[in-house]
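User: Quick sanity check before I run a bigger batch. Here is a single chain. Can you write out its predicted 3D structure?
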Amino acid sequence: MSREKYTYLVKQKAKELGFMYCGISKAEFLEKEAPRLERWLNQNMHGQMHYMENHFDKRLDPRLLVDGAKTVVSLLLNYFPAKENQQQEEDTYKISKYAYGTDYHFVIKDKLKELLNYINEEIGEVGGRCFVDSAPVLDKAWAKKSGLGWVGKNSNLITPQVGSFYFIAELIIDLELEPDGPIKDYCGSCTRCIDACPTNAIVEPYVVDGSKCISYFTIELKDQLPQEMNGKFGNWVFGCDICQDVCPWNRFSKPHNEPAFQAHPQLTQMKTSDWQELTQEVFSQLFKKSAVKRTGYNGLLRNIMFVQGKATAQEE
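Assistant: Done. Predicted structure follows.
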């Protein structure tokens, strides 16, 4: 079989498994990303995400992650919820849409394993590894390289006719496939994401200071939340979708059809008072398999109290 035929089989199977798009890149050193990543780390834009400092070389070269790697297969999986499956109360506390359902790590890992098994059955013995945001892989850089979108001014990957509400995952394999090429940047002169960010985390177009992002504060930061951020979180208590919600390209977002990503019915109807009275038992029930477990019950309460304090300060 030819490289073209292998590539066709992989992309067809990815589609069958529910992936929105599949793009192919040659596994090689990411030369342009190296100085960018180094500068970002040197300026401490990763805050307390110290794991970002580890495995610098592996982040830039997939051949250090998989022996004999020849190809990076990038995949996108939609998580945008239908309107009726989003949080319904306008001024309730909010969690990022990606965390509504089952933790994406589990959902995508299963799909990737199935894809890798299929490759081995149909093509022959192929060595490779599955990656879902849990290893030193620059997923946006690879997705961009394979033509799945461009990296926008909010540092999210954006895809024409689709937007940016999706997860990115990779298979790095020792099989040579037909690579795709990158597409151009369509952000133009738009600065809506920069203008809308309440914590000024987008310090310049295409550069996000992770240590100023609401998602960082509400998920990654384990310390007390800094007082200078008081009043700047809006109602966000886990993650933040502001820079995606205001992006004009996300008017093209279509609802996903992945049952595992459906929100718990109780979650979409929760009022502010329900969040404030949240018990450990209800937390465990609502977020049994959710990414919200990353911050834990006490972490979520800390975030709710911080946002609540902002509301109190304003009332006074």
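The mean pLDDT is 94.

User: Great, the batch can go ahead then.
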